[in-house]
Design goal:
Length: 343
């Protein structure tokens, strides 16, 4: 066993040994590339995106760990409205009570779904929570002080899109969309069968040893590492796109009436900004674009961007994420176009 481990380590070290002379030869070129302006910009943008999103992700995993402790499956079932319309409406307004950024929303919802929350309520909460909350409402008002209609349109469209998609999930999604749902069910069945075959001697104290601060932080650390790797990848690719594609070239693509919506929605997806700060970026385009494209930027970004797509793919099945993404894009485009037409 020890020999096999040493051979595996040797297979990694040998190629690395051949890389050492190459790195020494290219050290001056690598140093110059590392200090280049483009790379400095990539590092700056990457650190900015990561530091902006990481606190909200940490809040999300801490809440997820607390729910693992204190929220039982029976409690989730009792608090979940039986009427799907009522459930969607309640989920759409939960962000007012739990103002969590989109980065921290996914681990919380994943934990709630494992405890019995229906998929349609969970999806509604994921989409509406990052927008329909007092923090984002205040930030949008501050970014557009002379245009309160933008704030109202953002909140209204975000709630409408989230509620509509929640009802679509209720009508058309019949299977659990969680990626690890089958594994979880298998583990539960295996654990139940083991308990029946080997009943514990002291049933009253069966789970007491698990509820301590050590297990709490271990669970939170596992959740944070699991979700942050997708945040790192998304932030890095976003930083590269922002560095190598100039903003002027992107604006030139959005001159047409339809292209302006496509540009602003694509821009929101690529930038992957936090919902508490994207309004200040959108305000820079207030003299370039009309109300509709601005609202499409403000609504799509918190619901669907590059880093959140990777995090969704880590939680839900790929087919479900593709369908969810298409529904978000279509409804945001149609809703923002209608708002621009009416207002």
């Amino acid at each position: 066993m020890k020999l096999a481990a040493n051979m595996k380590l040797l297979s990694i070290l040998v190629p690395c040994a051949f890389l050492v002379p190459v790195l020494i030869t290219m050290s001056s070129d690598l140093k110059q590339a590392w200090n280049s302006e483009a790379l400095q910009n990539i590092k700056t943008v990457f650190i900015g995106i990561f530091l902006e999103a990481a606190p909200f992700l940490l809040i999300g995993v801490l809440l997820s760990s607390l729910m693992q402790w204190f929220v039982s499956e029976e409690m989730v079932r009792k608090l979940t409205p039986k009427n799907p319309v009522g459930g969607v409406l309640v989920a759409g307004l939960l962000g007012i009570i739990f103002p969590i950024c989109e980065c921290g929303m996914i681990p919380v919802v994943r934990r709630l779904m494992h405890k019995g929350m229906p998929a349609y309520i969970a999806v509604t909460f994921i989409l509406s929570g990052p927008v329909v909350n007092p923090i984002v409402f205040t930030a949008t008002l501050l970014a557009f002080p002379s245009h309160p209609e933008i704030t109202i349109a953002r909140m209204g469209l975000a709630f409408s899109v989230a509620a509509s998609i929640g009802l679509l999930v209720y009508l058309f999604v019949r299977q659990n969309p969680l990626r690890k749902a089958k594994v979880a069910v298998t583990e539960v069945k295996t654990h139940s069968a083991f308990k029946m075959a080997h009943p514990p001697k002291h049933e009253d104290h069966d789970h007491n040893h698990e509820k301590n601060w050590r297990s709490f932080f271990i669970h939170a650390g596992d959740e944070f590492v699991d979700m942050s790797k997708y945040l790192v990848i998304g932030a890095l690719i976003t930083a590269c796109i922002q560095t190598f594609i100039s903003r002027n070239d992107l604006i030139a693509l959005g001159n047409g009436p339809v292209a302006s919506y496509v540009f602003m929605m694509g821009f929101a997806y690529v930038l992957s900004l936090c919902s508490t700060s994207d309004a200040f970026v959108a305000s820079a385009f207030s003299h370039t674009f009309a109300l509709g494209p601005l609202v499409s930027f403000l609504v799509l970004g918190p619901m669907l961007d590059f880093k959140s797509t990777l995090m969704l793919l880590s939680t839900f099945r790929t087919r479900f994420v593709i369908g969810l993404s298409i529904a978000i894009i279509v409804l945001v485009f149609a809703g923002s176009w209608l708002i621009n037409l009416l207002v």
